[in-house]
Please model this.
Amino acid sequence: MGGETMSTVSSNSLVKPIDILLVDDDKGDVLLTTKALQQGKLCNTIHIAGDGVEAMDFLCRRGEYRDAPRPDLILLDLNMPRKDGREVLEEMKQDAALRTIPIVILTTSDADQDILRSYHLHANSYVTKPVGMEKFINVVSEIKGYWFSVVKLPPR
Model:
């Protein structure tokens, strides 16, 4: 699953593409998330990391990711093999070069301790994945609308 990139193209050539790093080990959730992100008029490039190790390699431009772009936004699942989302979040927020990248936790967990810990580790928002394809796509579309239409993102 790692190393994948998907693009959606806007008809407006003046629009700077938005790089999104999606970090999730669930192939079904990756498919639904990319489908929701590709809808609309925004020009997105979606990079996919299947776990936290791949995500950190992408962000630190190691190995196959040496030419990876700096993402404008990260959608981060918490529960993954090898290195979970909590570890990625903590590592990123301790790194001066990475800490300004906005991170949206997008996970199945609605446990209070996960929500609290994520915000203590400076997540920018926390969203619980809803059950059902239509609801899931709507939630991801809302995330996209907020982060790319309302919020002013930090420069790369």
Remarks:
- The longest helix spans residues 133-150.
- The helical segments are 27-38, 52-59, 85-94, 112-120, 133-150.
- The radius of gyration is 14 Å.
